[in-house]
Write a structure and sequence with these properties.
Blueprint: H1 5-28, H2 32-42, H3 47-62, H4 64-71, H5 84-99, H6 105-119, H7 124-139, H8 141-149
Helix pairs in contact: 1-2, 1-3, 1-5, 2-3, 3-5, 4-5, 5-6, 5-7, 6-7
């Protein structure tokens, strides 16, 4: 069963805003609550966007170390050496794969690819795709198996 288009669009917008907020958090070291407040003031968001945006920024930033631990074996260099856009996109994707089973893994990966195309370097979406495609097996094995039988 698919989500209504309004929820899908809202989550898409929330992810894109979260990439920008997490990028700012990584670059400036500002308090994440200050960044979230500024985004809520400056950006027009409906309730769904606001809630998902706040969840992504707060949970990803609060759990960055454990998310990075999950990502590290799949990276070709330390996460600190990645472009900040790439690390923000990867962290959001990893968070969603692990903690949002209501979002199909194909959607998580596609959204990450789209965010990388929008905000990242020219070919970064390929890297994002490769890393998250490998990570999906760790958190979504049952979903992957089910998809094979359908």
């Amino acid at each position: 069963m698919s989500k209504p288009p309004s929820i899908t669009r809202s989550r898409h917008k929330a992810r894109n805003l979260a990439v920008q907020a997490l990028y700012q958090w990584q670059i400036t070291g500002q308090d994440r609550d200050d960044i979230v407040s500024k985004f809520l003031t400056d950006q027009e968001m409906n309730e769904t966007v606001t809630e998902y945006f706040k969840e992504l920024v707060s949970k990803v930033s609060a759990n960055a170390a454990s998310i990075d631990d999950a990502l590290s074996p799949l990276l070709d260099r330390p996460i600190e050496q990645l472009d900040p856009v790439e690390s923000a996109v990867l962290r959001i994707g990893a968070y969603e794969l692990q903690h949002r089973p209501d979002v199909p893994y194909k959607v998580v990966i596609n959204e990450a690819i789209e965010a990388a195309k929008l905000f990242g370097a020219e070919e970064s979406y390929k890297y994002i795709n490769g890393v998250l495609d490998k990570l999906k097996g760790k958190y979504r094995a049952q979903e992957i198996e089910h998809a094979k039988t359908v």
